Amino acid sequence: MRIKSNLCWHVLVxxxxxxxxxAMACRAPAQAKLSDxxxxxxxxxxxxxxxxxxxxxxxxxxxxxxxxxxxxxxxLAGNKALELMGEKTGAFTTVESTDMAMFDPETLNQFDxxxxxxxxxxxxxxxxxxxxLLAFVNGGKGIVGVHAAVDNFYKWxxxxxxxxxxxxxxxxxxxxxxxxxxxxxxTKAFGAKGFYIQEEMYRMGKPYSREKLRVLVSMxxxxxxxxxxxxxxxxxxxxxxxxxxxxKGRVFYCSLGHDRPIFFNKAxxxxxxxxxxxxxxxxxxxxxxxxxxxxxxxxxxxxxxx
Length: 306
What we know:
Number of strands: 11
Strand order of the largest sheet: 2-1-3-4-11-10-9-6-7
Oligomer: single chain
Number of domains: 2
CATH class of the largest domain: Alpha Beta
Number of helices: 8
Strand content: 15-25%
CATH architecture of the largest domain: 3-Layer(aba) Sandwich
Structural class: alpha/beta
Helix content: 25-40%
């Protein structure tokens, strides 16, 4: 009986250790810094100047906390790209953190926008932090979501409504992309042309709705296989980027940003700059939800072949 008891204890200890290692892996970046080559690629792809003149000096929180899977490459490259982008263009300055204490009201209020860069499984268990974030946006400030920012708030409906959707899977890699609203100021970076991209592409679930969101970019399912179509939403509406107004504030989300190469792309970096400037309130654009437009824009589709 003692041998059996000791064996059970050993199994429990090993299981607990495995869970601890897994949890630490979720929180710790896979590498401490970018390579010189990757840094050079990011710098070469940065916008030259701000699209809009900031109304005042802007301060942005780059928040990269992972309580689930850690997109270490996307966090590392995304934070660096946005930091350097702000410095080069003068559009904003940045502070990086993974500490939930940043959402204490007196700390949060020093910022003009929060970028949730590949955050995962955030609970916002402290009601004070929930109230602070909602007040932050409703009061006139901004939120930006990068890639896994929709993989949070599963038990906080108001938080999910802020980002605009919840992650339900990533069944695609290479994807055809269409510009839903090619004349919109925030899609100018793409030159009214659809394209193809290799990326971990997300399928969105509730509360996603074009009744609430202005969808800017989505997947061009007409250029993809039947298997790809069947893997998506039943309505074949698989969005990539959108904006919305929340109270007096603004939200910009883009699902591109799984790993470092996304931030080597000049058009995508420009898109992020413009989206951040919108969230900050410096770039004024129409955020009427897509379903409520008087006339639907003609999308710019991906090329027939690539």
